[in-house]
Amino acid sequence: MRSLNSSLSSKDSSRIERGGGEDQMCYRASPFLISFTLLLSLPFLFLLLPCILPPLFPLPDTISPADELDDLSVLRRASASSLSHLSSSSSSPSLKIAFLFLTNSDLHFSPLWQRFFRDDRSRSLFNIYVHADPSANISLPPAGSVFHGRFIPSKRTSRASPKLISATRRLLAAAILDDPANFYFAVLSQYCIPLHSLEYVYRSLVTSTTFDSSIATAESAQHGVRLRYNSYIEVIDRSPRLWKRYIARGRYVMLPEVPFDKFRAGSQFFTLIRRHALMVICDRSLWKKFKLPCYREDTCFPEEHYFPTLLSMVDRRGLTGYTLTAVNWTGTVNGHPHTYGPSEVSPELIQRLRASNHSESYLFARKFSPDCLAKFMEITDNAIFEE
Length: 387
Ligand SMILES: *[C@@H]1O[C@H](CO)[C@@H](O)[C@H](O)[C@H]1NC(C)=O
Ligand SMILES: *[C@@H]1O[C@H](CO)[C@@H](O)[C@H](O)[C@H]1NC(C)=O
Ligand SMILES: *[C@@H]1O[C@H](CO)[C@@H](O)[C@H](O)[C@H]1NC(C)=O
Known about the structure:
The longest helix is centred in the N-terminal third of the chain and has 24 residues, at 65-88. This protein has a domain at 65-322. α3 (45-52) runs parallel beside α10. It has helices at residues 4-8, 33-41, 45-52, 65-88, 110-118, 163-178, 198-207, 218-223, 242-246, 274-282, 287-290, 302-315, 347-354, 373-384; strands at 96-103, 126-132, 182-189, 193-194, 231-234, 271-273, 319-321, 325-326, 364-365. By secondary structure, the chain is an alpha/beta fold. The chain has a four-stranded mixed beta sheet. Strands 4-9-8 form a three-stranded mixed beta sheet. A two-stranded parallel sheet has the order 5-7. The protein is built from 14 helices and nine strands. The protein binds 2-acetamido-2-deoxy-beta-D-glucopyranose (NAG) (3 copies). One 2-acetamido-2-deoxy-beta-D-glucopyranose binds at residues 137, 139. Residues 1-20 are annotated as: Disordered. It comes from Trapa natans (Water chestnut). The chain crosses the membrane at residues 32-57. It is a single-pass type II membrane protein.
């Protein structure tokens, strides 16, 4: 079986220059987080309308029409429900993080994630959703596992195809439908591990005014509250291979929706805020281009282009331009990042993986071979979850 992660990896990422992300614009808004979020959602209502009204023409299909229709109905339901939540969610108790696992094999590190989520279950700071490739014979988690009952209706995924985009959109839609308090949406795979405790992750994303260097502004510091939320997604606008990837479906195919100067790349392991998650599930116009098949598999990685292109076209200022998932591109083979084995796993490795130039720390890391689990379980309490 092919690893999902390897299909996501980019040969370019080690040497491409990263996009900006240091914009300093701050919204002036009430510190009451929920109402603030709602306010932010209003300007984007127009984006939701296409989701609620049926499309005038059937879109050209490369993914099977039945699958596409199936997805459309879920995406529409999710966006419609988010509209109704606009008026009712002011009573939400707290913002939650939705952890979205995209996998085509067993969740090798589920005992590690079990510990990660363990202590905070009662405080309900999070929700878990799993998209598991139904063709992969994945064993269902036992009752008592945090993953039990968290599998969403899923479809087959495959390398260099838009099916990974569909899978991610299904996860986002499921999470939006499931709980109006889901505010951050973090995409992970079975080869990812946490680099900190859930409490640290929650604090960094939700309350910290210093975690994200692009919003650690004087204003936030002065008020002592988080005034603004960004999506943590890599946005790469310069790379020698970008042109080849742009024309992978034909030279003029992406026009007029996506001119080359709007085409972006980035890892598909990102953490989106709710309004960006909504934009993604509502999009029809870019999707109808990105879902077209490529001529060549080795230049096609739609899942690495669709999200950064779409979001930077509609709201570049709301994106950090960097990801929270550490990955090691040194010695990359065949577009696969370095896969750590058990002999490399140590508290020092965790320390090294945390170091980021963009935020106070990376929060997650990939990619690790399944037999690293025992080693992780030895070091978790002292080296991973100590903060
Ligand atoms: C699925 O996995 C189980 C346990 O890992 C194995 O016993 C079974 O033969 C597998 N089924 C198929 C169709 O591969
Ligand atoms: C990255 O991977 C290379 C092997 O490809 C390894 O030598 C190096 O130590 C790794 N870097 C980190 C920070 O783990
Ligand atoms: C941080 O930036 C420096 C200088 O560009 C670079 O050498 C270093 O590898 C970067 N570290 C990380 C963790 O990305």
